[in-house]
Structure formats: C-alpha cells, structure tokens
Amino acid sequence: MSAQGTLFIISAPSGAGKSSLLSALMQDRPKDMQISVSHTTRAPRPGEEDGVHYHFVGQSEFKALIEKEQFVEWAEVFGNYYGTSQTVIEDTLNKGIDVFLDIDWQGAQQVKKLMPNAIGVFVLPPSKAELERRLTGRGQDSAEIIAGRMAQAVSEISHYNEYDYVIVNDDFDTALADLRGIVRAQRLTLTSQTHRHDGMLKGLLAESL
Prior knowledge:
Blueprint: E1 7-11, H1 18-26, E2 33-35, E3 38-40, E4 54-56, H2 59-67, E5 71-77, E6 80-85, H3 86-94, E7 98-102, H4 105-114, E8 119-124, H5 128-138, H6 143-157, E9 165-168, H7 172-187, H8 190-196, H9 198-207
Parallel strand pairs: 1-7, 1-8, 2-7, 3-4, 8-9
Antiparallel strand pairs: 3-6, 5-6
Helix pairs in contact: 1-7
C-alpha cells in the first residue's frame, strides 16, 4: 500500500498572512509538500511567475476549462477568476505528497464536496486594525481596493467555523509553529500511518503470531 498525501485547504481574508505562512512551511520538507498552482485571470503582481505562483490565463481560456470540468473548484474574486485542477491534485496526492490549496471559503466548500477528507485551516488576523495595516503596508493596492478588501474580510471571516483548524496570525513564528503542528498531526493519524508503514505493520503482526 503506497503512501497517500493529505489535501490541506488554507483560507483567510486578504492580508492575514496565509501566503507567507505557506511559503515558510514549504521550506521545511519541499519534497513532501506542494502548494497547488491555481489558474487565474488576474494580472501578475511584481515578482510573480507564470506556472510558479499561478497559471495566468485569459477569461476565454478559463471559461473553456470550466466547460470541460477541469476544476475541482473555481470562483470569481474581485472581478478575477481563480480555479484549481482536480487531476493535478489527485496525481500529486497519489505520490504521497501533501497538497496545499490557497483558496477562499467558496472554493473550500466546492473542494469539500468532491474531496471530503480534505483538512481545512482558517487563518485569522488578530484585529481589523492590524489587517488594514498589513494591506496598506504591501504598497500594491489603491485605497479603494483596500477598502473593498476590508469590507470583504468580514464576510470571509464569518466562515471560519466551517474549517477543522483555526490559526490566529498575531506573531508569525507562533502561527507557523501552529501550522507545522497541524501538518504533523495529520501525518500521524491512523489512516496516514497505515498507508505509510503498511509493510512494517504486516511484519510486526506476523511476528506476534
């Protein structure tokens, strides 16, 4: 029985720090973990590369992929489309690699319907004031866009109770340790350990007879 990866869904209001947490987490065991690269119609931000951070596509191409049912989830956020390929996720999980989806609550609901064993993690900011400070500190968005993100944050945060775990990102190192703990705990579940150590378990049971 081969090892099976775990699908993690990471959600948060924009500016809560989920992308930074995921980036730091990936440095721990890069061969065992992978952030799913989503498709999006939004323009690349400074430093983002096609195929690394996102698959940047036009709206017509994105809608064609929807019609072909290529996405496990997709959503329109702030006028842009985002979607996740189901085939890529399943192939990666079958290799024993944990997959992390950086998606919103709408996408999380869609994924949970198709893949109910996915583990949901919601990242919260410590306060609205801190969230606004982080969004402003990026220096990437206009005041109008930031105001829109702050308004949307309340709606997004209202769905925190649909997730399995909640992390408050007040201190980054503490939040990262919490995320690491969640991943570690999932690797120690009965299902995960049975898949990972199938041969060893059979040997131990045989010796006890």
